[in-house]
Amino acid sequence: MSTENDGTTGRPPEGPVPGRPDAPPSVPTPPAAPPSSPPPPSPPPPPPPSAGTGAWSYPPPPPPPAGSRRRSALIAVVAALTLVAGGAGGAIGYLAADTADSASYTSGPSSTVNTAGGERTERPPESVAGIAEAALPSVVTITAEGSGEGGTGTGFVYDEEGHIMTNNHVVAPAEDGGTLSVTFSDGQTYEAELVGGAQGYDVAILRLENAGDRDLEPLAMGDSSKVAVGDATVAIGAPYGLSGTVTTGIISAKHRPVAASDGLGAASYLSALQTDASINPGNSGGPLLNASGAVIGVNSAIQSSSALGQPAGSIGLGFAIPINQALRVAEDLIETGEPVYAILGVSVDMRETATSGAQISTEGAEGSEPVVEGGPADKAGLRPGDVITKFGERLIDSGPTLISEIWTYEPGDTVELTYLRDGEQHTATVTLDSRVGDSN
User: Do the bridges between strand 179-183 and strand 139-146 make them parallel or antiparallel, or are there none, so unpaired?
Assistant: First the structure.
């Protein structure tokens, strides 16, 4: 049986989550062939299948430059939407548009931007050109080197103290004694150190080491809880190494359950913002902005229709970490260097089940108890075999969906959940516990 513990026992996530190399691949659209058989029930997760098996596979990275083996570190693997959707064709999770008014483009004091001919043209600051002009000086390209491998990704200035926010998978190649460098839009490059990374959230914070007197301008932070489906979006990043690339779109969906893995037993679970702004390998860690130029998300993953041997590319299905969650994680990383996770204290079955929901396992991984004694679930009366169908305001259709929702909360939060036991529906209120650090 494949189970997933929400963090109480400190083990790496398990279950049918595809592997993610340091240079984030994308998840292709599954071919019409029959789905592959369920993965074996032993950790770590199975390696990613090859294309043509009916399961998710990974595209090759762009050609490496001479003298090094480099992977375009950008888009993390989108967790098999089929897995999360239970075969529902990607129509997963509980989708709800926020009731806040949609942002709109408005006129205001003009911004001056360069044209191809060198002339400078006036643009309203809330136009895409105005947003790009203001944001580009604060968006950086990150190069991570380590053990003969390397990757490139995107990040952005978080504060005036020199902190840079990005994805954890962008900096992963440099975690064990490697090097990190940050290049700004004016071509200036600085060394950086890793302050801390949260593999489960896929958030990392760097700090510039030699910025000197550089005038750092942090990007304005928005409120992802007020984002509505249909709101305009602007994505900035370095797809395939093309720094300073700007694309636009809308918020296509909210609370989209997404899971991703590095193939070594470590996984990330997101309740993501979905956008159709073009996002490609190299965009990971870059900002997703609203129509006012404020950050509402951190670009992290895509789904792609790439074929075997062909580079992955955008098909209008991009996923970003909501900025409210990323900000909370960033503060923990800056303060202590470690992420903090909310936990329910159960192991859940990560396979597709006959009953929609997240089923608490009847056996814990490696002989542990599936419901941790004295944990939040135990105190609320949950038992092995119970199927959780709703958590807070979100409908739950699988184990990965439950985990992604739990991690949107903070330790100490009180949440009402709905579960089935012997075919009967029950409700319970739980107070979430905490785990410090990623599972090892």
Answer: antiparallel
